[in-house]
Batch of 3 targets.
Target 1
Amino acid sequence: MFSLRDKKLAKEIVSKIKKLDVNLKFMHVCGTHQDTLVKHGLDVLLRDCGIEIGQGPGCPVCVTTPKEIEEMLLLARSGKTVASFGDMINVPGEKQSLQSMKTEGYDVRTVYGIEDAVNLATEHKDKDVVFMAVGFETTAPTTASVLLKNPPSNFSILCCHRTVPNALKAILDMGEVKLHGLIEPGHVSTIIGTKPYEFISKEYHIPQVVAGFEPIDLLMGTWMLVQQIEHGEACVQNEYTRVVHEQGNVKALKTLEKVFEPGDIKWRGFPVIKESSLELRSSFEEYDARKKHENELKSLKNKEFSEPEGCRCGELLRGLVSPSECPLFGQACTPSTPVGPCMVSVEGSCNIEYRYFKK
């Protein structure tokens, strides 16, 4: 909500942008930013100012590939106890979701965090428990800290963690969309700081601003991008100074380094993005579900999976289309009957658009 002070500042920002008569396209990579934009009507307000802000690959559930979902489905079918977050469990696979498997009697658990999955393994020593670890740099330190505490031997993770900066590089390299600026995610930046984004501004001359999640944060971040463009500058600015620091969370970063190493991985809607995954180091391979349950998963090793027919989630994640441009949106695809993950996750652009009745 806007305070009286923020309302005054917001009007001032809007007035200044309108006077510049701009025509700009920005991208953010955060589901919470998208929620703020749509919920408070900032998307419409800024379009009236000549600025379009689209959502990129900022939804962890959405960027998880069909193959990773099929891996969890196969582990459930093979008798494992599988656990993940509620959104992830509801994402459709090729023929069914983890949620539909649960209704068939398979041991699928909805958890609020990795600690809940570890507790399951501790309480049920006779069961192999696999946690689907999704998320960006924000949630990965929790996964790392748990593995450093030597969880029980019947526990493992299907690691699907990804990192943001190189995904942005991939979007720019693909050249499908002309971007004038990037609004970087506050939560991720709390962990990694601002330095990992600097190469983008240097190599691609793209202005960037790390922004918070209040409406005034996004308006201020937008204004800061406009100012960089007006002055012919391209750097990383930090609007979210009350939380984000240049060096990030040093302790969390050290924890990540102990457990993970960078790897190459596909994202939904993208080809393989180099060094955009967090893979378990060899010293933690006893907790790597892909190695621990290699025999159960071998049938998927060389298999490829495509998007559901008609689903445009991949294009949404690359910033090429909006939810309303998908023919399934609000018709065949709704939160109660989702076709793709962007309608499942509360951080997905389709789910957000549907919730605020902007069909």
Note: The longest strand covers residues 272-280.
Target 2
Amino acid sequence: MLEVSGLYDGSAAGPVDGLDLVVVGAASRDITPDDPRGWRLGGAASYASLAAARLGLRVGCVMGVDEAAAEAEELGVLEAAGVLVCRVPLDRGPVFENIERDGHRRQRWLSASDAVPVAALPTEWRGVRGWLLGPVAGELREEWAEVAATRDDACVAIGWQGLLREFAADGWVERVDPAPSPLLKASGLVVASVHDVAPGANLSDLRAFAPRATVVLTAGDRGGLVMRDTNFFRYPAIGAPQVADPTGAGDVFLAALMAVWLHSGELATPRALRFAAAAGSCAVEGAGLGGVPSPAQVNERIRETGTTSQPRGSNR
């Protein structure tokens, strides 16, 4: 039985002299009545940065923030976990209202997002091996693909959701058909929910847009589908005893896959997918970033479900 407690013990948190992973995206503000501000900080960049840091990676985050998000207390949570946060001021940042009905989510948008410019990337972060691009509102332009793929051995992942949506004039976030993108072309790992993909989309077409990538389509409590080269296989879900807030679970899943890839070289293998599924299942048990799990929580969930064979990597 392989053990992961050493790999994911969070020992990389704190001041660092180098980074394993750069996460890029805009912080969203998600409307909620449960917070005195009327919103809580969200977005793929927020969730993925925190999850990756807690799983032992040295993380820098280039995060677009509007005026309100720039003062969010959640940014202190990221920094306490060891994330180096590079705040990029935006006149407009994404603001969403997430509406859950019968297990399905619809989103209304209250604000779109300005672009996060490549010029905001700290010079000393260029050349990092690991990149996680997490657009939520099309805020990452195609030039980020060239920056992320600078190294021949670069590990580039993208959360596809932000490229599969448009902000409709009636205030709803609508799904759009997948389209070619330099960001997809540069990626080695692409993750999206089946709920992000427009009905009737051809899986072969999806794969063609990311020719170098392993593509993972998550399906919540139904597990998911992995597309690699011409091969397709399914992986099982790991359930959660209770669901408090599903927001961000897919981003935690992606960050966990990235952690395994960078630590051990396993790219969305069955063992890596089990670990990521366990991390995602833990994430839904808390509200907002409060649900992002520790390594101990993920390992305990794996033990509870009996899926104990996990990848080994170096302990930094």
Note: The first strand starts at residue 21 and ends at 26.
Target 3
Amino acid sequence: MFSLRDKKLAEEIISKIKKLDVKLKFMHVCGTHQDTLVKHGLDALLKECGIEIGQGPGCPVCVTTPKEIEEMLLLARKGKIVATFGDMVNVPGETQSLQSMKTEGHDVRTVYGIEDAVNLAEKHKDKDIVFMAVGFETTAPTTASVLLKNPPSNFSILCCHRTIPSALKAILDMGEIKIDGLIEPGHVSTIIGTEPYEFISKDYRVPQVVAGFEPIDLLMAVWMLVQQIEHGKAYVQNEYARAVNKEGNVKAQKVIDEVFEPGDKKWRGFPVISQSSLELRSKFEMYDARRKYESDLKEISNKEFKEPEGCRCGELLRGLLLPQECPLFGTQCKPESPVGPCMVSIEGSCSIEYRYTKKR
């Protein structure tokens, strides 16, 4: 778990926090952070120090809405070759998943990235290929760079890209829970930098730390947040300076801006969040599956799709409860028979909790 040096530092951090006798609730927005917390038992260790860390909407598969899943299911029924990541294939829709459609004979492909989907379009020029583009600012540059290379005309994307800072603002505006500090995602921050988070500390007086993914990274991030709170401060600190800077990856940002524009979008468990999505600009509309296949999707364009019955994934994504507090967790809802996406995705809090608590 720790090197000897890190072990000594970890013990020192834990000792110092315990002496302060705090009672704080932090939130992170990254599935990898959740994996590190639970895998290494940091969640339990920090609870002994009076600190609870919950996962917010940091799982891109989980925040993808039921309607977006139904759009892909419908396109598959209409004879398109649909392609997406492995986790997304297994997320249940209203009556079935893309995986179950595949077993019925529909052409559903699991790919490692958008380039694989483009290769499918080049190999099957007589077929329409639709790639489900899911992810935050981390994966958006890859989608953008592919579209800038003029992929085949039979290729399009169902764009489901979203942005993290806008979701954090939505959580704070909703005011459902008290958040004493935020641990910001390292991967996203390598692209956007630390500057986009500054308004949160300024407007909401919430301390923030961008953190890496090793156990010691998270413990350091917690200590930095505690120190801010103890000194009455609220600003953005960068624990992950080895990979993140204030400006971020300017080249990647320019690629994103060239292909996408901000839009308002619903997230699973949330109402419509203003300026929270990345929508294709009009000059790339030939690759927009929603425009290209508008007539195919018309039958569900005005239909509302609810969460699976009994699933509380939406509340998990807003930090309102823990996986064990969902009555379906580990009973009706397991990795081999998931009810909601939080049990499907390797970044989902239910999947992570189930995976590691069974080993404790």
Note: The chain has 18 helices and eleven strands.
